[in-house]
Hints:
Helices cover 35% and strands 22% of the residues. The chain is of the alpha/beta class.
Amino acid sequence: MNFLVNLGGKILSHPVGLGPGVCKTVRDVEIAAQSKASFIIHGATTFDERHQNEGVVYHRHLDRRDGSLLHTQNSLGMPNRGRAALKRDMPKMVRITHDAGKLLFENAAGFTPDESAILVELALEGGVDGIEINGGCPNVWVAGVQKPIMSYSPESIEATLNAIERRVGKPAIPVWVKLSPFVTEDLLEPIHSLVTDRTPLFGFEVLERIGGIIATSELCAGVTLTNTLGNTLCLAEDGTPAITYLDGLAGLGGPALKPIALENIRFLRPMLREDQFVIGAGGIMTWRDVADYRAAGADAVYATSGYWEFGNKIFDKILLGAIE
């Protein structure tokens, strides 16, 4: 069976990689490079250094019958060492990854279009193989106010792509956007009409507009679907919030996210050009998950929650299913 995958001119040995959120340092990359992942995504990297949110910020829910992962919830807050560390460490991380026969991508998480453009420029200078623009982690709060999520603003997506193109032109490596989950809000229309005089723009209408922007962009090589689903609540066995930061609000990931991601991919894939790719994310735990994502329209996938739980062994588990 031929597993080779073409992502914007970069050839993967197979379609399963490691997603962002777990490789933040050179040492993290050294460990991940020993896995069977075909690519590693470093980051997310923000313009300035960020520290992890306080309190309990990660929760997992396991099936009591067999111990399988049902979902995760996190509110890490995108801890990372910022642009200075990106500039300093990227060349070394690229060498480590290439020596292991893998590709290294960067997840750039600027809070403004110009910040994203500068992060892209630094990653390019470091020799990275591709750049994923983070469309919006839901776990960044300042003084009790949630940072706007770029994914839900077509204007912000377009402004960010334009800022990147102005600064670096069209790079020889792929640049793409990671989007948050979209769900329809049609059932809320009667409520909207009662409390506001503006016409609401529903979830899939936003995704359709973003699809049009990506499909017509000469810069954007594709899209990742999806990021975590923000503002969810999970409870511990005693009935209190499992996440203590901000009284439990956090991003939902893992297998529970998979059905949403599959539908988002099936919805968006027909809008994109044939040369644009789709990466699936959300609950990649077995080869069956890989097959489902590819059936929905994804070219490749990456695992993050699985890596949090099982480390490099998650790729052994996934790829073993490909040859069974």
